[in-house]
């Protein structure tokens, strides 16, 4: 049995037609979610597991050069095999226990970042302790650096000779949903590791452990250039510190409806194409509930006062480390006057009718850099594509999210 | 007009009785949310605003000594006035622009952490540009340290002489809800600043700016002991880096119901009192949606396979920096067998009937360190108190969250 996926073809599971789903409709699985991998996170400290998974002939490796993924085409990831990356990561980076790896920490050595992403339980082959079965997936940073420069450059060249490419640009929104989710996990973790080489508590360099899901501040550093191999005490070594674990920044994104439910508020930034609007969004702040963050952001950016806020769905967003929490909020009567003068983030904000939004969802969607579709008429509203949670929130409101009847 | 509060007395706002609220019931405002303060976050870089708010006679200061808040009693915060803390923070820490403060950065100087929390718009008095009006709230770290040691010790003594106390222990769950929300904001930010004195990108010391909501890695350090006042380049200085902003860790917490909706899964940790169970919970991982994280955590900890997941409400949790995202998930038929052998976090997990949970919510709630209430009979289920989102999730399921009819 594998972890259920909301995007499995119908009929997914009988329970999906149960009380919750009848009331809420099918779960919206936003782009970058819906990974087919079971992360078996509890096996990450187990170097014997990692070592076997790594060297299994089925193991698949997603390669990144400076955070750019190796692709066959804009719609297909190019996976490598263990033999391809062995010159870069060595015969077995998981040969030793974590304890020993920490003891032997040497800040002068460059260790290419390796991430264990999970196992795809739909594919047989690899098995651990006869319980955890599936195709293992890893991500590897093959950027030419330190002692691996030569090997990495050779690998990159051989990939290019096969017609593969490390895809430039930040967004990879043309991958199929499940591939996009695997890529998102890899990118988020490679970025977090690359972005945090030093300990924020003590300023010393840290070391990646737990298959790429943890960084630790080793008590010793045996690098020859270091005068005293014993490091001073560090707060992250006593108890559990969040500094050692990957960071994910919660953001709120919200479809705002008028008090009478007839209109939807959308805003636009200056750098966006003409006629393009989207839902408002912003970072959740310390000690805010999501509902409070939604009310604050909407007021700060548009001057609108919201009453009730309902959470709709969520979307991982690996640029670099966000969790987008999608909500629908309703203005209070008398609180609908737009004021862009508080926080000057938006160039414009406007109330749109249901018909305007409905038409835009049909003919005016596209990526930010793309042209609107063939049905679009100049001057009409343009909105984000289906891969954006903003689009899903607009769709939900127009379709009458959770109400049985249209909201607007 | 001030930002709406979900816990205002009835009738709150007419919109609260509109379509969304009729379908969803009133919004659940969990403990530590529901702050009465408008953070006016966009004014934080404005040192003229901060300076006026700081020195206004209405300004109220929440004092912390090593993260312990100054209280009058377990149910009341003791606020100080500007004159009380002037010996510690100086005449006006906001006299200079942020630009100048960064230019003059000196890593050898200890600057007590000061946080601008927001303005309470219900109280008249202070006004900025005739638009932002209300009583200003700040938090200050008065721990005896560096050059302020003497002044801080004197302040602490004078507080104690008045019968006030820096409250030991981590949890302050007996404060009224709105005070708890103010305390939570202060604690989260003081902790984040204290926990992150160094830059994770380059290892150099950082400086608090934006009224305590940002840390920056200054390009120069004029401390006399520093050989070269120009620092090397740092990645956080080009573009916007999340490392400069407070961290909030999203966690998921979920009431799990059986496929037929008749039972609820609860688990217990070894260190909890006998008969005490709660909902399962865990950290969201990189590039997971909340719905995926809920399914993963429930499977890892209990072996149960979930289908549909619905988000219920959220709770800020300032120990040290969590956002608890509360959800309700439903097991798929055939996926209800408990297996504690994957991730060994729980001592036990068990299916309970609606009646068992209902009774526990009536007679078996209490804080972890407290005795169960008078109606509790030894051997009955014990569960967390109303201040915990776990309790609210159980209540929601028993009351038939969003279904019109009981879920279990």
Automatic annotation (TrEMBL), chains A, B:
> What's the EC number here?
3.6.1.22
Q: Which Gene3D superfamilies match?
A: 3.90.79.20, Nucleoside Triphosphate Pyrophosphohydrolase
Cofactors that this protein relies on: Zn(2+); Mg(2+)
What family is this protein classified in? Belongs to the Nudix hydrolase family. NudC subfamily.
Any Pfam family hit: NUDIX-like
- Determine if Cytoplasm is one of this entry's keywords: no
* Catalyses which reaction(s): a 5'-end NAD(+)-phospho-ribonucleoside in mRNA + H2O = a 5'-end phospho-adenosine-phospho-ribonucleoside in mRNA + beta-nicotinamide D-ribonucleotide + 2 H(+)
GO CC annotations, alphabetized: cytosol; peroxisome
- In this chain the Nudix hydrolase domain maps to 246-374
The parts of the chain that form a coiled coil are: none
Protein name according to UniProt:
NAD(+) diphosphatase
**Biological process annotations from GO:** NAD+ catabolic process; NADP+ catabolic process
Looking up CDD domains in the UniProt record yields: NUDIX_NADH_pyrophosphatase_Nudt13
Q: Please name the GO terms that the record assigns under molecular function.
A: metal ion binding; NADH pyrophosphatase activity
Q: Which organism is it from?
A: Massariosphaeria phaeospora
Keywords (A to Z) from UniProt? Hydrolase, Magnesium, Metal-binding, NAD
């Amino acid at each position: 049995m594998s972890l259920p996926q909301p995007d499995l073809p119908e009929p997914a599971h009988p329970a999906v037609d149960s009380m919750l789903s009848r009331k809420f409709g099918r779960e919206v699985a936003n782009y970058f979610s819906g990974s087919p991998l079971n992360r078996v996170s509890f096996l990450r400290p187990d170097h014997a597991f990692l070592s076997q998974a790594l060297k299994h002939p089925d193991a698949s490796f997603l390669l990144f050069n400076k955070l750019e993924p190796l692709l066959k085409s804009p719609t297909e990831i190019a996976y490598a095999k263990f033999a391809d990356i062995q010159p870069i990561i060595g015969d077995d980076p998981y040969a030793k226990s974590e304890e020993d790896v920490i003891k032997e920490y040497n800040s002068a050595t460059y260790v290419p970042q390796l991430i264990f992403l999970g196992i795809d339980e739909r594919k047989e082959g690899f098995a651990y302790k006869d319980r955890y079965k599936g195709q293992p997936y890893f991500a590897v940073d093959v950027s030419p650096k330190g002692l691996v420069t030569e090997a990495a450059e050779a690998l990159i060249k051989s990939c290019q000779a096969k017609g593969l490419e490390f895809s430039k640009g930040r967004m990879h929104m043309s991958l199929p949903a499940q591939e996009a989710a695997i890529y998102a996990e890899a990118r988020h973790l490679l970025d977090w590791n690359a972005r945090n080489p030093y300990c924020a508590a003590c300023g010393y360099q840290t070391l990646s452990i737990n298959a790429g899901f943890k960084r630790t501040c080793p008590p010793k550093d045996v690098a020859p250039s270091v005068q005293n191999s014993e490091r001073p005490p560090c707060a992250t070594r006593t108890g559990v510190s969040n500094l050692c674990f990957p960071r994910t920044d919660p953001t709120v994104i919200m479809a705002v409806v008028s008090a009478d439910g007839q209109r939807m508020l959308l805003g636009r930034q200056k750098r966006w194409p003409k006629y393009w609007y989207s839902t408002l969004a912003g970072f959740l702040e310390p000690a805010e509930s999501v509902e409070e963050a939604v009310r604050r952001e909407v007021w700060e950016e548009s001057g609108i006062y919201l009453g009730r806020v309902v959470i709709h769905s969520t979307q991982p967003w690996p640029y670099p480390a966000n969790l987008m929490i999608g909500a629908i909020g309703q203005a209070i009567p008398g609180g609908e006057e737009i004021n862009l003068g508080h926080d000057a983030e938006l160039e414009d904000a406007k109330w749109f009718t249901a018909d305007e939004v409905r038409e835009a969802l049909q003919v005016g969607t596209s990526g930010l850099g793309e042209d609107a579709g063939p049905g679009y008429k100049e001057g009409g509203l343009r909105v984000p594509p289906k891969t954006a949670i903003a689009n899903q929130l607009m769709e939900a409101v127009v379709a009458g999210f959770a109400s049985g009847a249209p909201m607007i």
